[in-house]
Structure of 3-oxoadipate enol-lactonase:
Amino acid sequence: MRLNYQATGPEDAPVVLLASSLGTNHAMWAPQLDALSDHFRVVAFDHRGHGASEAPPGPYTIDDLGGDVLELLDELGAEQASYVGISLGGAVGLWLAQNAPDRFHRFALLCPPVNPAANAQTWIDRAAQVRAEGTQSITEATLGRWFLPEYAEAHPDEVDLIRQQLLATPAEGYAACCEALSALDLTPDLGSITAPVLLVTAESDASVPPETVVPLATQIPGAHLEILPGAAHLVTWSHPDTVNPLLLTHLG
Ligand SMILES: O=C(O)CC1=CCC(=O)O1
């Protein structure tokens, strides 16, 4: 499985991987690229089934998604990297922190679902719906969870860029990632994480509510938590002026 990616920044700088949310692609990191690329070799990639990465038939598993990232590191010739992931990308980051600690320096995990298996049937139903009716059937509801109404009203063009990504995501890839989430519970091994972790949650996140993220700050040794007021799920897109300095400070 070769993942599609976009690399920016000095070739000899430390590598930072950027992992996107369910139904989007590497272009969702546009608000972070300039800030991070001044300091890092920034590699924004598409999960399998998303963007221009291959979309093999599902179901996928978290081992598939995490294993793809380790193969990407090998392809880049990077022994180690830091990792920034939002939503689905954050869950993959938690898996990597638990399963491949020697390959990573630091993690910044934004709005990460830690136990989506607690709502397994929701994810199984969503997978079936998207296979039957396409991603257009979930796009507007998704945007409603990802952006506050006042942001969407003030920034229709920015919201439309994310809408286009959701609409362009292959139905099979989206559905197969829903199936990975339906079987995913990362809570048992949180205490084994040794890398420095920044957790970011949004006060009004209807996708991954803050009450599911806040406990991770005590369950992951040494983790640092930031709660963003007045924000919904896709904080990297809606609040880059707040998020980018947090990322730069944490990534060093
Ligand atoms: O579809 C969403 O709202 C975003 C999401 C991806 C993983 C998750 O838990 O929520």
Notes: Residues 5-251 form a domain with the Rossmann fold fold (CATH 3.40.50.1820). Residues 103 and 169 are 29 Å apart (CA to CA). DSSP finds twelve helices and seven strands in the chain. The chain has a mean pLDDT of 98.
